[in-house]
Design brief:
The protein has 209 residues and is an all-alpha fold. 71% of the residues lie in helices and 0% in strands. It has twelve helices and no strands. Helix 6 (87-102) packs across helix 10 (135-146), helix 6 runs antiparallel to helix 12 and helix 10 (135-146) packs across helix 11 (151-176). The radius of gyration is 20 Å and the shape is elongated. This is TetR/AcrR family transcriptional regulator.
């Protein structure tokens, strides 16, 4: 009699997905720093040893989980490929969609800097991360807007824009997680208005006729 091991195989696959999904949820809700193996196992309702069995190490699991989180931003990155729109409008819409997603994940916003440290820990990982995050496409879009040819200048502009658009979201996340002390009340314009304000100031000399 041939043993039917399909149910055993399915259970293994399901357990692996449960672990991955639990890790994603922890990062979304509380950040990478809170995604300990013990908490992941508790959230997935599995034995701690199964985490290493299925993923080999915490680092590999976190890399997979962050990759899955990044994939949820695909609709934002897709805008950068829509050449039917003017490059400055593509970039505006990219940031709006990306930040709209990010606001749903307070833990991810709070840990955005640690996220880059985790997945850019080697030259190979940095290259992979840059490809996933469409860094080249963003620089290409900036080149279309500004007609700048110096790659160092373009990279600097991208970093400055990232800092300007991400800072309010990240700071809000930190203040909301500050603990017992009430966070100072800061009134900001709606997200679309913030991006319009930034682009109006930053790209005023590149306005297309």
């Amino acid at each position: 009699m041939i043993k039917d091991d399909s149910s055993e195989h399915t259970t293994g696959v399901d357990t692996k997905m449960d672990i991955l999904n639990a890790t994603v949820e922890l990062i979304r809700e509380e950040g990478v720093g809170c995604a300990t193996l013990r908490r992941i196992a508790e959230k997935a309702d599995i034995n701690l040893a199964l985490v290493n069995y299925h993923f080999g190490s915490k680092e590999k699991l976190l890399s997979k989980a962050i990759g899955k989180l990044v994939a949820t931003f695909d609709d934002a990155f897709a805008v950068l490929d829509d050449e039917s729109q003017e490059p400055i409008e593509r970039l505006k819409l990219f940031y709006y969609r990306y930040l709209s997603h990010l606001q749903q994940y307070p833990g991810l916003a709070k840990e955005i800097m640690d996220q880059s440290r985790l997945i850019c820990c080697s030259q190979h990982e940095f290259a992979r991360y840059s490809k996933v995050m469409k860094t080249e496409k963003m620089i290409s879009t900036l080149r279309e807007i500004t007609h700048e040819s110096d790659e160092t200048v373009l990279s600097g502009m991208m970093v400055q824009l990232h800092g300007a658009v991400f800072y309010p979201v990240i700071m809000k996340s930190y203040m909301n997680a500050a603990g017992d002390e009430p966070a100072p009340e800061i009134h900001l314009p709606e997200l679309k208005q913030q991006i319009e304000m930034l682009f109006s100031l930053y790209f005023h000399k590149y306005k297309q006729s």
